[in-house]
Structures are given as C-alpha cells and as structure tokens.
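Objective 1b of the project was to move from sequence-level analysis to a structural picture of ligand recognition. The entry below was assembled by the postdoctoral researcher (A.K.) and checked by the PI before modelling. It contains the amino acid sequence of the target and the SMILES of the bound compound, flavin-adenine dinucleotide.
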Amino acid sequence: MAGQAELTTSPDMTAPQLLAYIVAALLIQLGLGIAYALSRRRGETLVPAAAAESAAKTPPLAWQGWRPFRVARREFEDARQCQCSFHLEPVDGVPLSPFKPGQFLTFRLQVADGGAPGSERTIVRCYSLSDRPDPRAYRITVKRIPASADRPELPPGAASSHFHDCVREGAAIDVKAPSGHFFIDTDPNVPAVLIGGGIGITPMMSMLRWCLAEQPERTLHLYYGLRCGEEHAFKPVLEDLAAAHPGFHLNVVYSRPGASDVLGRDYHHKGFVDVDLLRRTLPHGRHQFYVCGPPPMMQSLVPAIAAWGVPEPDIHFEAFGPATVRLGRAEPVDADAALAGAVEVRFGRSGRTLVWDGQDENLLDFAERHALTVESGCRSGGCGSCQTRLVSGSVRYAHAPDHDVAPGHCLLCVGKPASALVLEA
Ligand SMILES: Cc1cc2nc3c(=O)[nH]c(=O)nc-3n(C[C@H](O)[C@H](O)[C@H](O)COP(=O)(O)OP(=O)(O)OC[C@H]3O[C@@H](n4cnc5c(N)ncnc54)[C@H](O)[C@@H]3O)c2cc1C
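Corresponding predicted holo structure:
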C-alpha cells in the first residue's frame, strides 16, 4: 500500500530481534508522519522525502504535454471588467477527469511581440481553476494586468492582456493538465477557512464550489479581501451561495470602499483580512487555513496565522508569483548563508561560467542579469518551463515547488545554488 512500509518477520525470531523490528516500524511511521506534515505546506525547503510524499498525495497528471482546448464562453466577473472567466472545452471531446480543487492549469500562448511588427513569441503562464470539477469544461478567471502607473515605460501584462484582448469564444488554446499541491483537504469534519486576496479568490472559488456540492455539511468560512465594489468578483454567486448554505460564512473585506459601496450590503468589514479579524469572527476550534493573495498579504498574513498558534500543517498557501513567505518556526535556511562564499555556476549551452554572489533571488534572475537566454514561464515554480538538468552540484528551494521536479533536474526560477553548479541550460 502506498505510504506504508511492509515488514516481514520469521517464526523463529528472538525477543531482541522482535523489539528491533517494533522500534524500526515506529521510526518508519514517525518518518512518514513528518514527511506528510511537510508536504502539506509549502513554507520550507524541499527535501526528498517531502517531495516523494507530496507526489504520492497529488493525483497523477490527467495527460502529458499540451492538449488543445476551445474557448466555449467568456464572461466578466466584476463591474470594472478586469477579471474575465474563460470556459474551456477539450477539442478531442474526451471527458475531463476530476482535479483537486485549488489546482491550476498551465497555458502556452502565442502573443504579439512588442518588438518587430507582426512577430509573435511563445509564453507560458499558470491560471488556477476557478470552479469545481466538471467533465465537460474547465473554468479559469484572468485578471488584466495594466501597465504600471508609476512605470509607464513597462508594458502591460503579456498573457493577461492577450487573454482579455485576443482570446475570443471559439479560440483554440494549448493547455497542460491540472497540477499543483495547493488543494483542499477532503476531511469534511474539519472546518475550512478560505482566504482570497484580489484575484487570489480563484482557487477559493473552486474549493468553495466543490465543498458545497460534495460536503454540504462542512463548515466553511470565506474571507475575500479587495479594494472596493468595482473589483468585487463573483458577487452575485457568492451572495446566493451564502444565502443557500447556512454552514457557509461569507466575509467580504474592502480596504478602500467606493462612494456607492454600502457596509452590510456590499461588504462586511472595512480594512484588511488580518488575524485580528479572524480572531473576532472565527469560532474556537481547529480549522484548516487556505490562503492565496498578493505578495504583501501572503508575507504578512501567513506568518501571523502561524504566530497566532495555528499549527503549521493546518496552514496552506499559494502565491501567484514570486513571493517569499516565511513561517517563524520553520524559517528555511537561507541558501546564501549555507554557502561559504561566492560559487561558480556554469551554464552548459552558452559555455559561460558566472560567479553567484548572492545578489539575485533565484538562478533565473541571475542568468537574465548576465544576459543569458534561458527558458522560463510562471517564475514561481509551477509550470516547469525553466527545468534544466543539474549536471553537478545541488540547488536549494525556499519553498517546495509546485512542479514535480524530475530526478537530476532543478528549477531555475525558484532555486538558488547550495554549492558550485554545472547546469545543462
Ligand atoms: C499557480 C498560479 C496560479 C495563478 N492563477 C491565476 C489566476 O487564477 N488568475 C490570474 O489572473 N492570475 C493567476 N496567476 C498569475 C498569472 O500566471 C500571471 O502571472 C499573471 O496573469 C501576469 O502575467 P502576464 O503575462 O499578464 O504579466 P507579465 O508580462 O508577466 O508582467 C507582469 C508584470 O511585470 C511587468 N513587466 C513587464 N515587463 C517588465 C520588465 N521588463 N521589467 C520589469 N517589469 C516588467 C508588467 O508591467 C506587469 O506588471 C497565477 C500564477 C500562478 C503561479
């Protein structure tokens, strides 16, 4: 049976031998328990045992590589029309197998290249599934990323603009199977606290819709933090679900309500989703916490929930981009501190050897700063585009990556060297 060690005994075993077997069995069980706890959250360094256990808990990929889908329908979810849902049906017509609510899809997109007119480039991005499993279609919801007001010289988000401006009903799109380790626990007896900040509401919608359909008796608390009513996605559906399910407690939190937003009608609390609010509104008892939101929310709220006394295995989180979340009791060993000094990193394809001096967040930033072209996609350990063979040396991760890294390989976008490296890339 997966996850359980098998021990054999012989009839002529002596008492000390039997004792040794019992101790060995207990130690193996303890080890498996620790590995399970580690794999349930992402706030620490990847270790092989956690990776193996995590892989065992994650369903196998529904298909390998890219599968063509067609956009059956698209609809805006907010008044400002910045968050658009896309309903995707498989071109081959084969029913979709269920995914774990909270998982994401990976997309390959041909987008206009800002440089030469008419030219295109391929980019890879991840988007969470925003509805419960349905054998006919998937739904994702994409927030448009406009050009920054502070830095108008930078372009708007490439993939999100492409989705909003170019991916019409009927369009074909290449999709990788649902994946990721951020998904809801299936124990209906433990109440779940879902916390979504901004577009971080998408995996919460999937978890919520699945729970209400499959575990209608389960107590659920949703905290949805956003700026104002104009950005309020899924408003009617959330209000209808809360009215229909007494066990579902909806808490909408606006930080900057607009002139027409009414407390008590459009939102329940003013401010931010923080531990003070959770303390005031959650009943006593054990809960499983699921958090997804922008980097400032992740960096403050996740450690604060741990500091409040929630056991770390009960805190699950996902960031939609590079965000370093550190839990106090499980602070990862900083990769730079683990290095005695600068180390050499050799990139095989270009034949260049560079010196890692600890300036960069990860090996991908390091390569790009030195004008090396390497494959990349989500930049957060999810899509596997930057996976490369590790010819020699070892790489550390601050968080276990979502992508299941192939043996002998590493991810550049979330990895730092733990020794001198030779990479195939
Ligand atoms: C697991 C996972 C799930 C996700 N789920 C969702 C989801 O459900 N919904 C959703 O909307 N998003 C989701 N995301 C985020 C999504 O994958 C994309 O990161 C997001 O849409 C932005 O991508 P983009 O191509 O539009 O922006 P990019 O082109 O990647 O740009 C991002 C930002 O960088 C700026 N920029 C561009 N060029 C430069 C430059 N040269 N220097 C500095 N800055 C620059 C842009 O102005 C923009 O602000 C998820 C991410 C992950 C990892």
